[in-house]
């Protein structure tokens, strides 16, 4: 039996469906730059930092810009994204998440957020999820992005828990790689065909409890 003491969650696509708002904001920016940007292209941005995402889009469009121009574009995208997510409510929390968080708490485990998003606090506040977390590590607290394990290692440190006793929930391959690099058990949320490196893949948290999870990872 695995001795699990803590759970670390990614945010976008795991607890809340904010990926569509990232897509809308990036697509709006790409259109302004006369770049064709598809849903398939957007898959490349999952778990990737804002500036690296912009570099991918510019590469798709064959554009080269100086750093000052890129900073202004990334800021513009974020303004649009914040406009979208400012309208989030608890109704936007993905199915089963609240019950699963409650079951983790009942079993005495610690909970952390490990997200690349710099807007995590705004999202958690709007969703009324903040109080569930013992530690929140986001894009404002790390210098390296996934697949670098920094965000998850800092989460484990904040929870005073060894990485080997942590489970990470992720929906992006870069996040899966980061969890593996951190020496943590990783559960993918999404498709088994995409998240092949995860130790286990779930479609979501519907009807999931920590007791059921223990049986799956035993």
Short description:
Helix content is 43%, strand content 11%. By secondary structure, it is of the alpha/beta class.
Plain-language structure description:
The active site is at residues 10, 12. It is an enzyme of class 5 (isomerase). This is Beta-phosphoglucomutase. Substrate binds at residues 10-12, 26, 45-50, 53, 77, 115-119, 146. With 218 residues, the protein is α/β, with parallel strands linked by helices. It has 2 domains: 6-17 and 90-217, Rossmann fold, CATH 3.40.50.1000; 19-85, DNA polymerase, domain 1. The chain is 43% helix and 11% strand. The protein has 9 helices and 6 strands; from the N terminus they run βαααααβαβαβαββα. The chain has helices spanning 19-32, 39-42, 50-61, 67-85, 97-106, 120-127, 150-158, 173-181, 210-217; strands at 6-9, 110-114, 135-137, 166-170, 185-189, 200-202. Strands 3-2-1-4-5-6 form a 6-stranded parallel sheet, with helices on both faces. Helix 6 (120-127) links the parallel strand 2 (110-114) and strand 3 (135-137). Helix 1 crosses helix 4 and helix 3 (50-61) packs across helix 4. The N and C termini lie close together (5 Å). The mean pLDDT is 94.
Shape: globular
Can you name the CATH architecture of the largest domain?
3-Layer(aba) Sandwich
Succession of helices and strands: EHHHHHEHEHEHEEH
Poorly predicted regions are none
* DSSP strand tally: 6
Q: How many domains, in number, for the residues?
A: 2
How many individual helices? 9
């Amino acid at each position: 039996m695995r001795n699990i003491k803590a759970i670390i969650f990614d945010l976008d696509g795991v607890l809340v469906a904010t990926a569509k708002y990232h897509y809308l904001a990036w697509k709006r920016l790409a259109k302004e730059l006369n770049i064709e940007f598809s849903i398939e292209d957007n898959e490349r941005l999952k778990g990737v930092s804002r500036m690296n995402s912009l570099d991918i889009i510019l590469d798709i469009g064959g554009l080269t810009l100086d750093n000052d121009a890129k900073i202004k574009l990334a800021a513009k995208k974020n303004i649009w994204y914040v406009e979208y997510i400012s309208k989030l409510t608890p109704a936007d929390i993905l199915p089963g998440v609240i019950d699963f968080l409650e079951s983790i708490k009942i079993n005495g485990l610690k909970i952390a957020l490990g997200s690349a998003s710099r807007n995590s606090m705004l999202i958690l506040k709007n969703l009324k999820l903040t109080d569930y977390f013992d530690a929140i590590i986001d894009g404002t607290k790390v210098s390296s992005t996934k697949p670098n394990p920094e965000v998850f290692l800092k989460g484990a440190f904040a929870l005073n828990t060894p990485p080997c006793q942590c489970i990470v929930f992720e929906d992006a391959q870069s996040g899966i790689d980061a969890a593996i690099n951190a020496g943590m058990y990783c559960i993918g949320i999404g498709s088994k065909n995409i998240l092949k490196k995860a130790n286990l893949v779930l479609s979501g948290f519907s009807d999931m409890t920590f007791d059921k999870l223990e049986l799956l990872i035993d």
